[in-house]
Amino acid sequence: MTGLQARFRQDGVVCVEGALDGEASRIAEDAFRWSLENPGPAAREVLAGAPGAFYQDHANPNCLPAYRSLLYETCIADLVSSLLGTQNLWLLYEQIWLKEGGDKRRTPWHQDLPYIPLEGEDLAVFWTSFDPLAKEDSLEFVQGSHRGPLYNPTAFDARDASASMFADGVWPRLPDIESERNKWPIVSWAMKPGDVLVFHPAILHGGAPTREGQRRRSISLRFFGDRAFCAERPETGVAERDRLKKSSATADPIEQMAHAAPGTLFRHPAFAKLR
Questions:
Q1: Angle at the Cα of 152 (from 146 to 155), degrees rounded to 5?
Q2: At what angle do helices 3-11 and 76-84 cross, to 10 degrees?
Q3: Residue that wins the pLDDT comparison between 241 and 165
Q4: Is-contact 273 89, C-beta < 8 A?
Q5: pLDDT, tens digit, 9 for 90 and up, residues 131-157
Q6: Angle at which helices 76-84 and 64-72 cross, to 10°
């Protein structure tokens, strides 16, 4: 086990400086630009309805041709598979964010995994920014929190920061990390273009705000490997648009996996296989 792999397993997040060379960074920025110019069905303003909302898009079903070079011709898949120690690697989905044009709010503290019917050791999120970031402007993580528990996830409600996705009592309430920062082992890194973060989707994390004159363009890729399994997710209290089990006839492979028995290998032919 490499030192980087050991740190990823222990801390749930690693920063790899200079992981992307100039050509790989250009390919990544091209993919970001394609997503910006070709919004998918999930494109929306995060925290819409209040000042400081910012743009995101994810899981565009038409993205693969535009992302093929990024996924198959750069070092990204090799880096992630080596950190996980997995022989096989699949893309779960892509995601972009854009914070610019005045003060934008911080991305609330959350875990990615509660929103996905998935669990296991071989899960990873790759993230990079195309704009240099000071440490205080970067993503922040609660070190080691990927080991549990999973909390009732934020509903990303602009009017009520404490609003949860699931009904009260289903899962433990998400702690108010921002108001008690000194009680948590929070880590972050200054980043320059080409640096990347790789983290487990169960880790608690959030993104810093941007201010007038700042811009943060970032892209992430979510992956799973050999030890990835279907997991049950609550439906109680979930808004209709966020339900995973809307219809067994849906073409969305993530929603199809939500109908599989917990513990089943997380596999579907619609997920692009990279290794």
A1: 110
A2: 70
A3: 165
A4: yes
A5: 999 999 999 999 999 999 999 999 998
A6: 70
Residues 201, 110: contact at Cβ < 8 Å? no
The 3-state DSSP class for residue 273 equals: strand
Tens digits of residue pLDDT in 60-78: 999 999 999 999 999 999 9
Structure token pair of residue 104: 């934008």
pTM: 0.96
Q: What is d(CA 233, CA 243) in angstroms, rounded to the nearest whole number?
A: 9
Residue 189 tokens, joined = 């890194």
H or E stretch covering 69: helix 64-72
Q: Is-contact 220 107, C-beta < 8 A? A: no
Asked if 220 and 75 count as a contact pair (C-beta separation under 8 A), the reply is: no
Cα angle vertex 118, ends 108, 3, to 5°? 80
Is residue 255 within 8 Å of residue 246, measured between CB atoms? yes
Interhelix angle 64-72/22-37, nearest 10 degrees: 170
Using DSSP bridges, classify how beta strands 89-99 and 54-58 pair: parallel, antiparallel or unpaired: antiparallel
Closest residue by Cα to residue 151 from 96, 204, 79, 103: 204
Token pair listed for 251:
């073409």
139: which 2 tokens? 């993503």
